[in-house]
Write a structure and sequence with these properties.
The structure is a homodimer.
Chain A lengths: L17 E14 L2 E8 L2 E7 L5 H9 L5 E10 L12 E12 L16 H6 L1 H4 L3 H23 L3 E2 L17 E3 L7 E3 L5 H9 L4 E9 L11 E10 L3 H20 L9 E3 H8 L13 E2 L1 H4 L5 H4 L3 E7 L7 H12 L9 E6 L2 E4 L7 H10 L7 E7 L1 H18 L10 E5 L4 E4 L4 E4 L12 H4 L4 H6 L4 E6 L2 E8 L4 H10 L4 H14 L7 E7 H8 L30 H6 L2 E3 L4
Parallel strand pairs in A: 3-5, 6-9, 11-17
Antiparallel strand pairs in A: 1-2, 1-4, 2-3, 4-5, 7-8, 9-10, 10-22, 12-13, 13-16, 14-15, 14-16, 17-20, 18-19, 20-21, 21-22
């Protein structure tokens, strides 16, 4: 062992001890005849002191040091003259008797500080140096702690962690698979799993009762900001349970994590909100309930007054922005432009200011002050509030109002990352109709069970009936982000067959893609259900961050490249030949 | 929840309680007017009783049941008339008041018993049914327990579990990589990691000090029996340590596992044997030390007597097989054929029987009884033992003797899977010379450090000097199987460069393949080392098995196929086009 102690553990009680530390030079400075070196490791920083009482060799080595040199330092713990309250070791310093360079370092291309002077691209290239910075170290230590707590909680609840394969079969439903050519089976490919969904269901068929896994998943999507081609899930499944059992167990897990990792107490019973209520009130199936500003439908209050914009649409909705009645014309114009951006997609914005001295609105030539007051009241506006209205197709307009609500929440500082407001969204629609392809898609996935009370509707041939079928599906939402979701699964072969029929998946196709699971269900599948959490995102939110990249040791950039490794890269022709492949990239 | 209790928990103290169980029909039988149903879940088996006191509907459902039906049964716990001591629940039964079929089952294609009547291929196809059998359930539960204990042990030792990427860069050193074509980067490929070796070293450079991960690895090898293309490692690395620190910490971990998982106490300090001693004494770098039968060199005792077979070779070695002097001529002929098989590769076999009434040998016309007795004594033979001799090149012959030794250990029943005899093999040669390609290869991998006392030899240009260089490398061996291994790594850029030079890896090649790690080492790499255990095999041996397949939930067969999924498989042309690939498999 190169050290007797680490750089974070020495205290006033250690004074007089002879110790050896090893670590990196955070900084070195000279004050008169005395040199101070801050030595850093994972555990902290300790001050080393070189003065006239130290051997000449120590002074000599000391003056040769640069930033990030790896050193081994032996000396005696002494009380510091000027203490540093910001450091855990700030009461002491080590007067050196020996100093050795274990490895020199080139000057790093950016500073290893909490806020670095390096740009994103440069830090990505030298990720191993960026990882030395405190914020990243804290993020990865939080992630480790989260994983430990998740595993021990689920172990205590009787769950078994069972590893499922990574080289599986490609099933072209949903997002694109990454594929892996098989040398041993020419012309054939494995796929990397988008999730262990079918395996965990097979484990339920096999009687394993409670399964979980913290597991890597892969999705070959066109990357959006903050998406990674490989990501980690907390994947869980249980047998002989109903929805309520799953929700109770996993809100218990999340409560445990909040308590153990963040020291935060979460209500013993989380709110449950139906998908329909979430859409109507928040214009989102992942509502941020840290603040109000609920959406109100005002259609009936504004139609029939000759304002054709409102008269020609099926839905008009409003939110009341607290204390924003003072918005200037310029601010309102800017907000109007903002909602018209393609990312929001509204046609325009109508406002009603509820001032001390009366109502003021962009549409006051169509409506009486009383009518406008009625709209404002319906939206819950008080004096000093600004009511914002959007109109159009119902769900689309609600979604736009939802985006606007979040934006106003941000502008008003209502979204404190230290406040945690989790809830469950339940009763999702089972199916989503797609106008373009004129077919239904599974809102979660094709193994999600319809609610038993909707089974009759599920067997109807009418599109309107099928649109009303709700699923035993649920999402765990925190502060406007979906952290996880799942469902009670179909366990009966005939219901599963009906699902494939509704989705327009032919028997041959179903057999080809899901044959093994359809077959498995014929041999005694128990009622079962589960869910999965996006572990990267759970860690980020627990760490008070919105982006996941700092919570992944070696992430990829926006086009799926690892700039440190310079991957992906070309492989040589011999390897291509062995795989029976030819590239057409340059043809 | 479909149940109030599981099928393994009811006891005599529960008599009189009304309970609901859910599970699978293990078997159902009728005795007179009474039916008994054994209901099974992960936790155990409970007997259900249907008699004339039960509602008619219960009797009716009961008579419709088949094997593996999923049922829900409600009734009252009663004391059994004839108790079953083999079952934890054998004191009680449930007299049913309600019985419901949750899901029917086709008759499984093989029996769900400890020993099934199904063949290997059939059971692989219906893996989800095979997994219902007790031996597999126990294997996966053991694996879960092992993972929990490994993680908690290492967590308590200050290790952080840090996830490393799966989509990395192909480095054509060593075994073949599986590759993953990148759609977003046409013509380029990711590789799946053979191990996180470089990442864990980068994490040490980044200052994470103690890293571990239980992680999937991939190797596209021509499969041998009991090899899997994907396998799991316990992967570990530590900074500021010397070899002895690593060995002590991880034998502590293994001792913890033996104690917690198997209830076995292992000696507080494991034996350490040099690679040279292991080869000389056991003809193997993974010796089974549960039994003796050490190899002895007898070259000097047998040369110069006119027996040209021995005179013409550099090495003659012997083992003494206890109590095997009674071997018949036929048995000895069979053994001679056995060592001549290509898997062993010996030219022939010489024996010396040490009988009560004197020595008998296949070479007694060349040697006096005293000479033969001297050979037998050197081999440690007592009266009643059979001495077996092989000859040829030293290491090759020792290896053959090692294989013969294991075979004789098996035949004599000396290899009890319930006995655990772990040890460390240390001081491996750093380099292996390959005659065919006329170059050195790294015995472990190119990042393994030479022993500091051999540094001068390492910089020599003479082949003989380089062959003598030992590595700070170590293997953990249990009962004749290597469970893990590792090394102290090179942390100095110039030593690493020398290593590449010795291996004949050009600067350009090294830069292309390992550029990022060579570069990382310029920015303050600490002294570090680590190791990795093969988790599948560790689980198998702890479970008293030799083959790993039962300890993997969904293994692949000998040609890398998942016969349940029918993977790998063809992908459609559209997907090939998206990946800029053409298959040449059918050209």
């Amino acid at each position: 062992m190169y050290r007797s102690h680490n750089c974070g553990e020495l205290r006033i009680g250690d004074i007089g001890r002879s110790v050896t530390l090893a670590g990196w030079v955070q900084k070195a400075r000279k004050m008169g005849g005395i040199s101070f070196i801050d030595i850093r490791d994972r555990y902290g920083i300790t001050q080393l002191r070189v003065d006239e009482s130290c051997p000449a060799s120590v002074a000599e080595v000391s003056s040769s040091l640069g930033r990030e040199y790896v050193i081994q330092a032996t000396g005696v713990v002494e009380e510091r003259q000027s203490k540093n309250e910001k450091l855990d070791t700030g009461d002491i310093e080590i007067r050196l008797t020996e100093l050795k360079v274990l490895n020199a370092s080139q000057t790093p291309p950016f500073t290893i500080e909490d806020v670095s002077d390096g740009g994103e691209e440069l830090r990505a290239k030298y990720r191993y140096l960026d990882l030395r910075r405190n914020p990243l170290k804290k993020a990865l230590m939080l992630r480790h702690r989260m994983a430990v707590e998740v595993r021990n909680y689920l172990d205590r609840q009787g769950f078994l962690e069972i590893e499922t394969p990574f080289l599986i079969k490609s099933t072209p439903e949903g997002a694109r698979d990454f594929v892996v050519p098989s040398r041993m089976n020419p012309g054939e490919f494995y796929a990397l799993p988008q999730s262990p969904q079918t395996f965990k269901q097979l484990l339920m068929v096999a009687g394993y009762d409670r399964y979980f896994q913290i597991v890597r998943c892969f999705r070959d999507e066109d990357l959006r900001a903050d998406r990674q081609p490989e990501f980690t899930q907390i994947d869980c499944e249980m047998s002989f349970v109903e929805q309520e059992d799953v929700l109770n167990l996993f809100e218990g897990m999340m409560r445990h994590l909040f308590k153990e990792v963040c020291g935060v107490d979460i209500a013993p019973k989380l709110p449950r909100m139906t998908w329909f209520e979430a859409m109507d009130r928040y214009g989102s199936d992942k509502p941020d309930i840290r603040f109000g500003m609920d959406i109100s439908e005002v259609t009936s209050l504004v139609q029939g007054n000759g304002f054709s914009v409102f008269d020609s649409v099926p839905y008009v909705g409003a939110i009341a922005v607290p204390g924003a009645a003072e918005y200037t014309r310029k601010q309102l114009d800017e907000l109007t432009e903002w909602v018209k951006r393609p990312q929001v997609g509204a046609k325009g914005l109508v406002y009603i200011k509820v001032n001390e001295d009366g109502i003021k609105s962009s549409i006051d030539k169509f409506y009486s002050p009383e009518q406008l007051q009625a709209v404002a009241s319906k939206a819950g506006a008080k004096i000093g509030d600004l009511v914002l209205l959007l109109c159009g197709q119902k769900r689309k307009t609600q979604t736009q109002l939802g985006v606007l609500r979040i934006e106003m929440g941000n502008r008003l500082g209502l979204r404190d990352p230290k406040v945690f407001a989790p809830l469950w969204i339940v009763d999702f629609p089972l199916l989503e109709w797609d106008d373009e392809t004129q077919r239904f898609y599974a809102m979660h996935h094709p193994f999600t069970a319809p609610k038993p009370e909707h089974l009759k509707l599920f067997y109807s041939d009418r599109k309107e009936d099928l649109e009303q079928v709700c699923a035993n599906a649920y999402d765990f939402v925190l502060n406007g982000t979906e952290l996880g979701g799942g469902s009670i699964r179909i366990h009966e072969a005939d219901v599963q067959q009906r699902m494939f029929d509704v989705l327009g998946i032919s028997r041959e196709d179903a057999e080809y893609k899901f044959g093994f699971i359809i077959n498995a269900f014929k041999f005694g599948a128990p009622p079962h259900g589960g869910l999965a959490f996006g572990f990267d995102r759970v860690c980020a939110l627990f760490g008070g961050q919105e982006t996941i990249r700092d919570f992944i040791a070696f992430p990829k950039n926006n086009v799926g490249r690892d700039v440190m490794l310079d991957a992906p890269s070309r492989i040589d022709d011999a390897q291509m030949d062995e795989l029976f492949l030819k590239s057409t990239a340059n043809e």
